[in-house]
Design a protein that fits this description.
The chain has ten helices and eleven strands. With 265 residues, the chain is an alpha+beta fold.
Length: 265
């Protein structure tokens, strides 16, 4: 997945900080071959009984190194691709108009076969189902946000600081996890072995322990809800279902009107 990841983000990202959690395949070789990558070992777990809670604590802190150095930071997993048809221009426009967080609408992407290694997933594999659980705040301004306050898995957040989302939700989070059924089933089994006691007891990452039948049912439901995210008439801000936790925050009427002029319907 690293090749797809770098092919997607290299045009946007000036510096990657990647935490390795004991890779045993060729991931380290791929990471070291990218000159933008700073590879770090995963710190000792802040919660020895939970892999997920420890990862969340790390995600809350390491991005603060970018204050004063970057316009935007992206906190993400390798299978999460942020997408907008004109993403460079969109990010510039957001910054110019005072936007400081850009939550993305989640889509569970699905393919019956694993894609070619040389493709760009966001243009070659464009079928996904709206999936509100993956609607996350992956990108924000490190200079305006004081704390992200991510929940486990970063599925929601309670950011503090100068918190201003765009008036209209255009950014998408394409979750490239369901790439071939048998491959997905095998990877779930592998991830399950990495869970710690608290993860298992609390049901965090419970989908990793799904049976073949349970995963097949979820796969079929996702397949039945697929839409083509590349279609110009998608209008995700109007058609994507599910709770948008960031819309519970208040934005002044003056600022909201300014943003609406910048991002007309």
């Amino acid at each position: 997945m690293l090749g797809f990841f770098f092919r997607h983000y290299d045009r946007l990202v000036q510096r990657y900080v990647v935490f390795d959690d004991g890779s045993t395949d060729n991931s380290l070789e791929i990471l070291r071959s990218n000159p933008k990558v700073e590879l770090r070992p995963m710190p000792e777990y802040s919660d020895p009984e939970s892999r997920i809670a420890s990862a969340t604590a790390l995600q809350e802190s390491f991005w603060k190194e970018s204050r004063g150095l970057a316009d935007w930071v992206i906190v993400t997993d390798i299978d999460e691709h942020l997408y907008h048809p004109q993403i460079e221009d969109y990010l510039v426009k957001c910054k110019e108009n005072g936007v400081t967080i850009i939550p993305a609408l989640g889509y569970q992407m699905l393919s019956e076969e694993f894609p070619r290694q040389d493709c760009r997933l966001s243009t070659a594999l464009t079928m996904g189902a709206p999936f509100s659980l993956m609607s996350k705040m992956n990108i924000f301004s490190p200079n305006e946000i004081v704390a992200t306050n991510f929940t486990l898995g970063r599925h929601t957040a309670a950011p503090r600081g100068n918190v201003v989302p765009p008036a209209r939700d255009e950014l998408l989070l394409l979750h490239y996890k369901y790439l071939g059924f048998e491959r997905t089933l095998r990877r779930h089994a592998l991830y399950c072995t990495r869970q710690r006691t608290k993860d298992l007891v609390s049901g965090w990452g419970v989908h990793y322990s799904w049976s073949r039948e349970e995963l097949q049912n979820e796969w079929n439901e996702t397949s039945a809800a697929l839409v083509d995210i590349s279609q110009p008439d998608l209008r995700p801000w109007a058609t994507h279902t599910g709770n948008r936790w960031w819309r519970h925050r208040s934005v002044s009427a003056r600022l909201r009107n300014k943003l609406k002029r910048a991002f007309p319907k």
